[in-house]
UniProtKB/TrEMBL annotation:
Highest taxon above the source species: Eukaryota
Transmembrane segments: 60-81, 93-116, 123-141, 147-171, 178-204, 224-243, 319-343, 363-380, 415-434
PANTHER family for the chain: MAJOR FACILITATOR SUPERFAMILY (MFS) PROFILE DOMAIN-CONTAINING PROTEIN, SYNAPTIC VESICLE GLYCOPROTEIN 2
Domain Major facilitator superfamily (MFS) profile: 60-435
Entry membrane topology: Multi-pass membrane protein
Positions of the UniProt region annotated as Disordered: 1-21
CC annotations in GO: membrane
GO molecular function, a single term: transmembrane transporter activity
Localization of this protein: Membrane
Keywords tagged on the record: Membrane, Transmembrane, Transmembrane helix, Transport
Lineage, top ranks: Eukaryota, Fungi, Dikarya, Ascomycota, Pezizomycotina
Protein name, entry field: Major facilitator superfamily (MFS) profile domain-containing protein
């Protein structure tokens, strides 16, 4: 895709019609006449196209990559902590710890999503990982099961906020033809799983109560492994939060600023991106229009934006489909992760000696394979025949097939093989949906 942009073009001198072909999505016609000015958000995107991919976007991609790693650390740590903490606290329903986490994720995603539209992207983006780091580390001091649930829910609240904002920040700064990175970046979910498993492995072996332990035989001093895991994850998240805020800094999203009617600040943000990328492009405030859109500075206005997501049959259909997909994924994922061991045990699967070594070895292998899934989907969405819709269908069907085959697991080799394939296609599908 190529596009020529004049930095000195005055609004009244713009051509009657600019016609371009967008990347893998068909054709886009921007009608720009004296009476129908090009929206400022479109002009901002034109400026980003003129600047091109550069140091600012790569730096931002690393920062958002931290968010992907943190999110997955938070999600998978629950399945590692839950069985160990249960030995010490003996809760009646141990698996409900995951319910506390998902409740926090849901509320955090909604709250931070609205906050990002009201106060801007940068604030939400910076404090999300910081909140995860603090409450994950503090959760290690939980004296009871109830307190652990509270800290897990609060940490998940910030984690859900991070999930809501990471790709938004990156998407609003990328040239269109680099959009496939939004899908490929999901490979870091697999990396987050691998890192968490490798950290937990020696801690569980050396600092947790043995299998079959009860509160009578499992003292706090004998079961510090899961606490050490939370402390280490909290410190890692804090380190990434500091890097994100002070080293890999971002400018406020110029698109959000334009939507708020803050033209001067949007221009400053665009020119900052251009300067960091060492581009000769410079924008002036005269290139943006005095739009009459009212800044979204209230919750009422933010909720009003939600209604716009369902305007028109095609838009409404797309949103309903995405909501249903995420709803079904939200049901399937915790069922698979949390109840997997219970299912295998109930159905008499013989998957080796059941040792901690085998458990974490298999976890690490399937997690590493999962890293590669989004790499595949990042390629498939660029194939004209497949695009995003057919790639979602293909990866979802493959994931469902291997999940079905997993119910036939009878030995260790099948367990590892099917687990790897499920993680591979699950992350591949996630990457497309999330992007």
């Amino acid at each position: 895709m190529s596009r020529t942009i004049s930095t000195n073009m005055e609004p009244e001198k713009k051509p009657e019609l600019t016609h371009t072909t967008s990347f893998s999505e068909g054709e886009i016609c921007h009608h720009t006449t004296e009476h129908i000015p090009t929206p400022n958000v479109t002009l901002i995107q034109d400026a980003i196209e003129a600047i091109g991919m550069g140091r600012y976007q790569w730096r931002l991609m690393v920062s958002c990559g931290f968010g992907f790693v943190v999110d997955q650390m938070l999600l998978v740590s629950i399945s590692l902590v839950m069985p160990q903490a249960s030995k010490e606290f003996a809760p009646q329903y141990a698996t409900l710890l995951s319910a506390s986490q998902y409740a926090g994720l849901a509320i955090g995603a909604i709250a931070f999503g609205l906050l990002a539209d009201i106060t801007g992207r940068r604030l939400s983006w910076q404090i999300s990982i910081f909140g995860v780091s603090i409450f994950t580390a503090v959760g290690a001091a939980s004296p009871t099961w109830a307190v652990l649930n509270v800290f897990v829910a609060i940490a998940a609240f910030f984690g859900g906020g991070n999930l809501a904002i990471d790709l938004t920040v990156l998407a609003e700064s990328l040239p269109r033809k680099w959009g496939f990175l939004l899908t490929g970046l999901a490979c870091l979910w697999g990396l987050g799983s691998t890192i968490t498993g490798l950290i937990a492995w020696p801690l569980v072996v050396n600092f947790c109560c043995p299998q079959g332990a009860t509160p009578a035989t499992c003292r706090k001093s004998d079961n510090m492994g899961w606490r050490y895991l939370y402390i280490i994850l909290g410190v890692l998240c804090l380190f990434m939060s500091i890097l994100r805020s002070f080293s890999l800094r971002m400018s406020e999203s110029p698109k959000w600023l334009a939507l708020q009617g803050r033209r001067e600040e949007a221009v400053v943000s665009i020119n900052t991106i251009s300067r960091i990328n060492k581009s000769a492009y410079r924008m002036s405030s005269s290139q943006l229009h005095e739009e009459q859109s009212e800044p979204h500075k209230s919750m009422r206005a933010a909720f009003g934006m939600l209604a716009g997501l369902f305007q028109g049959k095609r838009q409404a259909r797309s949103m309903i489909c995405l909501i249903l997909i995420w709803l079904l994924v939200g049901i399937a994922y915790p069922v698979y992760i949390v109840f997997l061991t219970y299912y295998l045990e109930a159905h008499g699967a013989k998957i080796g000696d059941g040792s901690v070594y085998q458990t974490y070895r298999d976890w690490s292998v399937s997690s590493v394979v999962g890293i590669l899934g989004p790499v595949l989907s990042g390629y498939l969405i660029r194939v004209p025949f497949l695009g995003r819709r057919r790639t979602i269908t293909l990866t979802a069907c493959a994931c469902a097939i291997f999940a079905g085959l997993f119910t036939t697991v009878k030995n260790e080799a099948q367990n590892v093989g099917f687990s790897c394939m499920i993680n591979f296609f699950l992350n591949a599908m996630y990457g497309v949906i999330y992007g």
